[in-house]
Design a protein that fits this description.
Length: about 325
């Protein structure tokens, strides 16, 4: 059973709760009312907003390519238009029925040149049919629109354009671009100018492992490339120091003579990527000495060359050896 003191406390608490709750509801009512008045005044003011409107070419035959289309729907561009009008009208453009794309019928714009240009006035005329009479077009970007189309296409090569550098003690073994060719949709004049297309500049430095990156192709004005993005794979391997014994070969030896070197083989030091180390053979190196340059010296200078592209650097441990000229006896 509650004590008299507890009963009084509960009645006081209930009264205060009802009072506060009533004041809070009154506050919410006036807040909502003021918001409605503010919104009504704002909607009646003149506002300026940017609206985006797609421009699409329709009724394009299967044997015609809209070469500057941005996607398979033949979307040419998107107009960014600043419109000025009463707030409620602008709101209807943004949040109501909105503005439909501008459709250009291919049958109405085709010509023999493969290029149609729409001026600002023409774009405004195309847009005006969707706007209220009170709406003012303040500005428009782009200010003109080009439509390029072609009946033909061409396969062209892709070349990587950029900077590639491995980290210390690593080596770039290969750079692979996939796909190696792309399709160029363009008029005959543009097609004749291009046999290849470069990627946009890309920089890959400090590489210590193989990477694959998507890189965009440089756009060709008035044309379309499919695909317009390629994968660039940079293969990286660690460098290894190796050595190998190679036979010394004498050159320019006159008939009736021979040159004997001590030792007959010398050590060649070289650097190679670890995955390519097993592809290096003694026959890839040539260590030679020129008989005509020895004179009376007991030593002969050595020269080394290498034909294996996997070897990145090479040198001799000793740049000379002892040698003896020997004249052959006639039989």
């Amino acid at each position: 059973m509650n004590s008299p003191k507890q009963g009084i406390f509960q009645r006081i608490r209930g009264f205060l709760f009802k009072l506060l709750n009533k004041e809070f509801l009154i506050f919410l009512f006036f807040l909502a009312l003021s918001s409605i008045f503010w919104l009504a005044m704002t909607m009646n003011d003149t506002l300026e907003k940017e609206v985006s409107i797609p421009i699409i070419v329709t009724n394009v035959p299967k044997d015609v390519y809209i070469t500057n289309a941005k996607d398979s729907t033949n979307l040419i561009d998107t107009l960014r238009v600043n419109l000025s009008d009463k707030g409620y009208t602008i709101a209807s453009y943004l949040y109501g029925h909105g503005l439909a794309p501008i459709y250009l019928n291919y049958e109405n714009i085709k010509n023999s040149g493969g290029h149609v240009e729409f001026s600002t006035s023409e774009l405004k005329r195309l847009l005006r049919g969707q706007l209220d009479n009170s709406t003012v077009i303040v500005s428009m970007k782009p200010e003109k629109l080009d439509v390029y189309y072609s009946h033909d296409k061409k396969e062209i090569d892709v070349k990587f354009y950029g900077r590639i550098k491995a980290a210390d003690n690593y080596f770039i073994t290969d750079t692979i671009v996939e796909p190696t060719t792309v399709t160029l949709f363009a008029n005959s004049e543009t097609r004749s100018l291009y046999s290849e297309v470069q990627t946009e500049f890309a920089s890959f430095t400090g590489l210590s492992e193989t990477i694959t990156r998507a890189v965009k192709l440089k756009p060709v004005s008035g044309s379309r490339l499919e695909p317009d993005v390629v994968n660039v794979t940079v293969m990286v391997d660690m460098l290894q120091d190796q050595q190998m014994k190679v036979t010394v070969t004498a050159v320019n030896v006159p008939a009736g003579f021979r040159l004997i070197t001590y030792p007959p083989k010398v050590e060649v030091k070289y650097v190679v990527a670890s995955k390519k180390a097993g592809m290096v053979k003694e026959s890839d190196f040539r260590v030679s000495t020129d008989f005509l340059t020895i004179g009376d010296s007991p030593k002969c200078k050595l020269k080394v060359t290498c034909t294996n592209p996997n070897v990145k650097s090479f040198s001799l441990r000793e740049d000379s050896v002892r040698c003896v000229k020997e004249q052959r006896t006639a039989n």
